[in-house]
Specification:
With 473 residues, the protein is mostly helical. 72% of the residues lie in helices and 0% in strands. Helix 17 packs parallel to helix 20.
């Protein structure tokens, strides 16, 4: 034979059955509409009045999910990542069904799955707008933040973050959250007490997004725990703890520090956002314990964890955003509370090492390989960094500003101590000057004036390396 054999002819009944199977498919998928209808109908039955009677036995049953139903609704959860399925669920008013489940069911697993499906559906813009415009559904979803079940809280946070990332509906959710003051307490409780790192990271991302979107909301949350309301009854104040945003953020940062670098980055950025407003800086430094705890944690990160002397310079690419946040917060604390004991310059000289090391590694990352045919690919990568690496530029600007602040606080005694302990040296000063000039010219000139009194030989050597400085001094 010179061709494949023809397929066997189908009987009229078989042809009709095949057409029916094709018509049962959801969009271009192989998922069955009929099967999905059955699962959703089963969900409706679960929360129907006859299945939600009060009573200890009934309530205990409501807390559990039948294994077969769990498997089926989990398949819907997986399927909902497909846009055709998500749109079909939307057309079938599935969000209303899920809202009914969330409003009536006490089963944590079922609630988690329903929020998870909505979270998948919200990844598609049209559906996200529809879900966000439903005020009742919005209220029910926000009440899920009061849950004690970590998986449900995780899925709720994921859904909120998805919606807050859509510019068309972000303001709607910000306003709803502002209308629910207890959300502040709930989120503070989670980030200050949870040991679930995945949950901490996702809730942190929600807070970070909220603060980035709306400064007014951030200010409200900063002030929320600043003082106990005068008219609040004493018994209420004992029952309801007063949460302050800074200690809660610090607690979460400590929890995620070793297990999730991306999560630590998120919480450091939250602290950085707090320092963009005066109230935020005061929230950090006014309470001595909060200021000291913040300083000690961040000091430890940059002096003993990030960008260490035995790390390859390219590590800076992985750590540039978190380092920018950490240095920014340290700098804000340093200039606002220099009289605090933990901010004595002689104790903080190791920061000069960290800042100079970062600047030196940055120069290495931006340097193009020369005279090497074998490094063409590496040269392409490096040239991209030198042209437009926005985050590296931010890190450099913040590092230089912080270093200049420390230099301005140096006295003859602290400079002498820095030279003795090796925090200041010819090579470190050259690297610092190279990055500080010409923007921080006055700072460098004042530094040299003091250095002349401490180590004239070193000062002369530095002036030779930077002739423009010698001409001025």
């Amino acid at each position: 034979m010179d061709r494949n054999p023809s397929p066997p002819l189908l009987s009229p009944d078989e042809q009709e059955e095949e057409k029916g199977a094709e018509g049962d498919c959801i969009g271009s998928t192989v998922y069955s509409k009929h099967w999905l209808f059955g699962v959703l109908s089963g969900l409706i039955q679960l929360v129907s009045p006859q299945n939600t009677k009060s009573g200890s036995d009934d309530e205990e049953q409501q807390m559990e999910l039948d294994e077969e139903m769990e498997n089926e609704i989990c398949r819907v959860w997986d399927m909902s990542m497909d846009e055709d399925v998500a749109l079909f669920l939307q057309e079938f008013n599935a969000p209303d069904i899920f809202m009914g489940v969330l409003a009536k069911s006490r089963c944590p697993r079922l609630r988690e799955i329903c929020v998870g499906i909505l979270g998948n559906m919200a990844c598609f813009q049209e559906i996200c707008v529809s879900i966000s415009s439903d005020k009742n559904l919005g209220q029910v979803l926000l009440h899920c933040l009061y849950e004690s079940d970590p998986p449900t809280l995780l899925e709720t946070s994921r859904l909120l973050l998805t919606c807050l990332s859509q510019t068309e509906v972000a303001s709607v959710w910000v306003e709803r959250i502002r209308e629910h003051p207890l959300i502040y307490d709930s989120i503070c409780f989670i980030i200050s007490s949870s040991t679930n790192v995945d949950l901490l990271v996702k809730v942190g991302e929600v807070v970070d997004k909220l603060f980035d979107l709306d400064e007014t909301l951030m200010l409200e949350w900063i002030r929320n725990g600043a003082a106990q309301p005068v008219d609040q009854p004493q018994e209420d104040s004992e029952e309801r703890p007063v949460f302050k945003i800074v200690p809660c953020v610090l607690e979460a940062a400590k929890q995620v520090r070793s297990e999730n670098p991306e999560g630590l980055d998120v919480y450091m950025h939250i602290l950085q956002l707090l320092t963009t407003v005066d109230d935020g800086i005061q929230a950090i430094v006014q309470c001595p314990d909060a200021g000291k705890d913040t300083w000690n944690l961040l000091f430890d990160l940059v002096c003993h964890e990030f960008c260490q002397s035995n790390d390859p310079p390219i590590i800076l690419q992985e750590q540039k955003t978190v380092l920018a946040s950490v240095f920014s917060v340290l700098s804000a604390i340093f200039v606002s509370q220099t009289e605090q004991e933990y901010l004595k310059v002689e104790k903080d000289l190791p920061l000069i090492d960290s800042l100079v090391r970062v600047l030196k590694n940055m120069e290495h990352c931006q340097k193009k390989p020369e005279n090497s045919v074998e490094s063409n690919m590496e040269e392409t990568k490096t040239s991209d960094l030198t042209e437009d690496d926005f985050h590296l530029k931010i890190l450099k600007d913040i590092s230089c500003e912080f270093l200049s602040n420390i230099f301005q606080a140096l006295t003859k005694e602290t400079m002498s101590l820095g030279l003795k302990e090796g925090h200041l040296s010819k090579q470190k000063c050259i690297c610092a000057f190279r990055n500080l000039l010409p923007l921080y010219n006055p700072v460098v000139e004042d530094f040299l004036k003091i250095l002349h009194e401490v180590d004239k030989s070193l000062a002369d050597d530095l002036e030779k390396s930077f002739p423009s400085l010698k001409a001025r001094t």
